[in-house]
Design a protein that fits this description.
By secondary structure, the chain is mainly beta. Helices cover 12% and strands 39% of the residues.
Length: 789
């Protein structure tokens, strides 16, 4: 069944130039994106620190407990040695491996591997590393091996070092003699005689005694542009093909951590690899920091990208129970930021510029942006932001700063000096299509917008074509508003298929191969087909009405402040109580608060008396949250009475009506919420405060730009419906459509790509030759037309 639509494009109405920096990269150490991913190190747990428990944390069973009470997985038992194994050719041989904290290599590498060979019975004993789910080896390629070793007086020092396939067959072998009872560095080159995706590196001997290994590193010689301590070329190519313009690094929640000790400190990630501190990440594994601050700067330069460094502003992750650096201790963190800028941009005569030169890069990297914090919010953030902002502008006024909006909504800046705000969206299909026009009405006199993280993560279709289509619909809104939305980056970028903390992602990989999702293709298509000038256009399309239903929810701290609540529908009482408690019949205590009613509730009226306390008041309605997948409307009051109506979906938030002020009455107020099939009404003391007509979900979203050099119009069309759309495209009265067409679609919108079928959902480019101005847009598709003028 087909539906109809119309698109009118006026090439004479040129709105504004496209933003040259609209599409960039956001890299975070998550999903083994760095260690075990783009960072080309092949040895897992190279310095034997993977099971070190973060300071002030405790492990119970397989759970890590942070100082502030955050509980997360800790998969490896303390004292185990991930990645490393002992192999005995004879069962009766007596040998062991263990972690040794005596005689450390240096203060940053506190553990070594002790290999004790008590009785070898004239057979070979090996200690081997299996890498990150196997060491990928390529035929006739060379690998640089380096390690530190020492021995006791009873060991001959004779080792055979081998690369082996998973059957234990040798693909490369080289003898090595450990010569000292003190730490010495050894460097060798191994060449593989065969292809093996799941190889191992083994140290073998048939002699008795004890030896120790520390900081065992194996790198392919063929890294990206053959840099030492370099990157995996095939994964770099994946990101380069996206044609990004900037790099946001190194996080993300990775920057914040869940404690002071797990926060990112850049000075611990530069210089000699053996002098760098590894640290436990918020994403449940330890990072070597081999991919450190300098390597990020170098990666951006090698790819021709502008630099955006995200600094910790003295707050750990506020989305988890975290910690605040006291304001009186903040100067150290501010100085860290200033020193980071000096390292990136300072002259060679400066302290940190000198160190940059010593690390191999005399010329400045020319960092352009500093983002102050990540997903931080509230008064704790605002006061810290101002101190960081003032410090940057006092010393480096040319640096462009970025403010976290996250839960603040839109361009509200709380009176702070703001150049760019960073908005993050993780939501469902309907959200992205429904609010694809949200930037059409943003304040043009406020700061610029950076959509720093976004992806469809909720509901059917996440990570599949359907999810990519919803993101594309939202992206048309960003492109239509490039006078204010100047930057964006999808998140996350990478995921190792063996260790995925978060889904979906753009690029999935194992040790040898990778595949990309439909969302990757959308990002690539939009970045490749930019044009020069955004054109005025108007779309006429059919739409569907969203389905919202659900009960009420209140925070536990608000329960004592709610009195005489009555919820009714068509004069039928759904719930009535003079007060609320956690054990009340007809209610359910969830992780987010007390839930009243169920998902079947639709049109209803809520009356209640409420006191606005020191922590404000939050009234959730039409709440259909399931587990962590949030979806509800929120009437939110600050403690001073300022209030707003917003829609929460996943980890996304959109404001539906302007903020309203209120003189708070300590005795409380009468609140009334009326929910109809298409509108929401919020009354305060019998006065209508907020009114919102629920937005419909358009079938077609579009944006058009002019490519001046090629004299063509680039039209992006996103059909988020189950119908083919017979669309009239009126470009200054043209009666034929001639040029090129690129179509991303599938018979099933829930299809995606996999390692086994990497090309199941891919864009197809063909000649466009239509002898009319009617173009049929396939259902659930993204289409780019390049129409000659």
């Amino acid at each position: 069944m087909n539906k109809s639509a119309k698109l009118t494009i006026d090439t004479n109405h040129k709105k504004f130039p496209v933003s040259p920096s609209l599409y960039g990269l956001f890299f975070e150490e998550i999903n083994r994106a760095g260690d075990g991913g783009i960072y080309a190190e092949l040895i897992r747990n190279r310095s034997f620190e993977d099971t070190i428990i973060p300071e002030r944390c405790e492990v119970e069973g397989c759970e890590l407990h942070s100082p502030a009470g955050w509980v997360s997985p800790f998969e490896e038992a303390p004292g185990s040695i991930p990645g490393w194994h002992l192999r005995k050719d004879a069962e009766e041989s007596k040998a062991s491996i263990s972690l040794d904290e005596n005689d450390p290599l240096n203060s940053e590498n506190s553990l070594s591997l002790r290999v004790e060979l008590e009785d070898v019975v004239d057979k070979v004993i090996s200690v081997y590393n299996e890498g990150f789910w196997g060491i990928p080896l390529k035929k006739n390629e060379k690998y640089n091996l380096s390690f530190y070793a020492k021995k006791d007086g009873n060991f001959s020092g004779n080792l055979e070092i081998t690369l082996e396939n998973k059957k234990g067959e040798k693909l490369s072998s080289i003898p090595c003699e450990i010569t000292s009872e003190n730490w010495e560095k050894y460097e060798l080159v191994l060449e593989s005689t065969a292809e093996e995706p799941e190889g191992v590196l083994a140290f073998s001997t048939s002699d008795k005694g004890t030896f120790w290994l520390e900081f065992v590193s194996l790198f392919p010689q063929k890294t990206f542009i053959e840099r030492k301590n370099g990157l995996r070329p095939d994964l770099v190519k994946r990101v380069a093909d996206l044609e990004p313009k900037f790099l946001r690094f190194p996080g993300g929640c990775f920057v914040e951590g869940f404690s002071v000790e797990t926060a990112y400190r850049w000075k611990k990630t530069i210089g000699d690899l053996t002098q760098r501190s590894s640290h436990w990440t918020l994403w449940n594994y330890r990072t070597t920091n081999g991919l450190g601050y300098h390597e990020y700067l170098q990666m951006a330069e090698d790819l021709g990208l502008e630099l955006m460094f995200v600094v910790n502003c003295g707050l750990t992750c506020q989305g988890r129970p975290g910690e605040h650096i006291p304001l009186e201790d903040l100067d150290d963190w501010i100085q860290d930021m200033l020193d980071a800028i000096e390292y990136a941009n300072g002259p060679i005569t400066s302290k940190w510029g000198t160190l940059r030169a010593e690390n191999g890069h005399p010329a400045p990297f020319n960092m352009k942006y500093i983002e102050i914090g990540n997903e931080n919010f509230g008064t704790e953030y605002n006061v810290r932001y101002k101190r960081f902002y003032d410090a940057v502008k006092a010393k480096y006024p040319e640096i462009i700063t970025i403010w976290n909006t996250h839960w603040e909504v839109g361009t509200e800046t709380k009176g702070l000096p703001v150049e760019i705000v960073d908005e993050h969206f993780y939501a469902d299909f309907d959200y992205y299509v429904m609010y694809s026009d949200m930037y059409d009405t943003y304040d043009r006199n406020g700061p610029k917008i950076y959509v720093g993280e976004y992806a469809m993560i909720l509901g059917e279709g996440a990570g599949k074509l359907k999810g990519a289509i919803s993101e594309a619909a939202f992206m048309t809104g960003m492109e239509r508003n490039q006078d204010i939305v100047t930057m964006s980056s999808y998140a996350p970028l990478f995921a190792n298929v063996q260790h995925t903390n978060w889904t979906p992602n753009l690029i999935y990989f194992n040790g040898t191969n990778s595949y990309v999702t439909p969302s990757y293709h959308v990002q690539k298509l939009f970045a490749e087909n930019r044009g020069d000038i955004v054109l005025e256009s108007k779309v006429e399309t059919e739409n569907r009405f969203p389905s919202f239903n659900g009960g009420m929810s209140f925070r536990e701290i608000d329960l004592p402040n709610i009195k005489a609540i009555n919820i009714s529908s068509d004069e039928k009482s759904l719930f009535r109580s003079e007060y609320l408690t956690k054990e009340q019949p007809g209610t359910c205590l969830e992780w987010y608060g007390l839930r009243i009613g169920d998902s079947s509730w639709k049109d209803y009226t809520v009356d209640m008396n409420a006191i606005i306390g020191l922590q404000g008041l939050k009234v959730r309605f039409l709440d259909s949250t399931k587990e962590w997948q949030q979806n509800y409307f929120l009437w939110e009051f600050d403690s001073n009475g300022e209030n707003r109506l917003v829609h929460i979906n996943g980890w996304s938030r959109v404001k539906l009506s302007p903020n309203q002020a209120l003189n708070v009455n300590p005795d409380g107020h009468h609140l009334c919420i009326k929910v109809t099939h298409d509108s929401l009404y919020c009354y305060l003391d019998d006065q209508l405060i907020h009114e919102y007509k629920i937005a419909k979900i358009p079938y077609l979203t579009t944006v058009s730009t002019l490519d001046e050099q090629n004299n063509e119009v680039i039209v992006k069309l996103v059909n988020a419906s189950e119908y083919n759309l017979e669309t009239m495209i009126d470009i200054d009265g043209k009666v034929k459509l001639v040029g090129k067409q690129i179509v991303l679609t599938s018979d099933d919108p829930n299809q995606t790509n996999t390692m086994e079928e990497p090309n199941k959902v891919i864009p197809i480019e063909t000649v466009l030759q239509v002898d009319s101005n009617i173009y049929e847009i396939p259902s659930f598709s993204v289409v780019i037309l390049k129409i000659a003028l």
